[in-house]
């Protein structure tokens, strides 16, 4: 009986199409043979499973590589200043070939190209990449922080270019950047501004006027550069109250409780709202399109090259803003761009915008800040929460320390960059939406500048405007293209918000 069983097993083994049994190892015991039989079947199944996993793995790797290549990869840079044959970005010093010409004209046809926004990879803090921006030299671009993604490029402008931009700004004439106070200092800036009831304050905070205060609404106030009428303690009280609220929203009654100014008579005497300094400087705007000074034009091309953004986006963005800070001048910490709400619309795409939106705001995917002068003492650009592990609105305004207030707390920021003539900073104000377009505001991009102690500081801002609604951005670009076709030679100009408007919008 046992023999019979054995021969059946053996026969099956042979019929399976493997080697003849005679050539096989014949184990002395039946149980062992059965195990071998099972292990053959198992190893085939195992082989199939492994192969399937292997293929899935390979496909995943290919997919990932393609994703990285088209979205975030260390793509190609183009040499600006007309040199399209030069190499571009590389890591470790070897330039990569990258011949994509930067056009002097608006690319009205390349909408498809416009719908992916490349991002430079930071790799890690301290990482240095070689970039080719001018024909005869390479520049080094160093990662300064990952949150926000921030780079420093020394020598982005030559001494002569800095001088030209400053002179052009002086020729155009600088205007006062609006401040909420006179320029006599903090004392005076604390003068009462308005006397508002708690209900009026509630209404001001209630951006969408739904009679409920959401965290977003309170936070968007706390972000404003002027930081005016809610002091840090008020803000902290309100946010704490909101967090204790199970609905996550405050009704007017809840608000009354958390905004109980009578408990803190010293902080908000008689309910007077106080304004504080937000900034002090002078600024002007310089157009960079056709007919502008070649240095301005070149600078814009260099921005396109470095950022690898579609040239249309850069060309349709705000003009160059040049700012001069003198002794004591500064600006409070702020975000250059705005969080997107249903009630807001981007100023730059207003042509294609939703007219029912309440507020126009600045939508700035990235900032390029150029230092046009070195400063002897003070005037550092500060990123108070750069590379924090977490971003916490409340931590910004803890008792006695208001990181927004650069006049008082500049030294406490996480990162401070000393202005050096010719150096450029590049940072992304927004995260990616994960699909290659602009996503949420990067809270960590909060920055300001410390008061000038000695010397004069000149800087210029090139902001690249992008609408978080890619369809609206596309519509806007189509409209501009149509207008351009109808009126050749006319350049569509972004109408800049004034510097002060901008920061009230934040
Ligand atoms: O001047 C600086 O260092 C920063 C300027 C700035 O943040 C701005 O103008 O928005
Ligand atoms: Fe800024």
From TrEMBL:
Domain Fe2OG dioxygenase, chain residue ranges per copy: 316-466
A Gene Ontology cellular-component term: endoplasmic reticulum
Pfam families: 2OG-FeII_Oxy_3
Region Disordered, residue ranges: 1-23, 81-103, 482-506
Keyword Transmembrane helix among UniProt keywords: yes
Any one GO MF annotation of this record: procollagen-proline 4-dioxygenase activity
Domain of life where this protein originates: Eukaryota
Protein name from the UniProt record: Prolyl 4-hydroxylase, transmembrane a
Organism: Labrus bergylta (ballan wrasse)
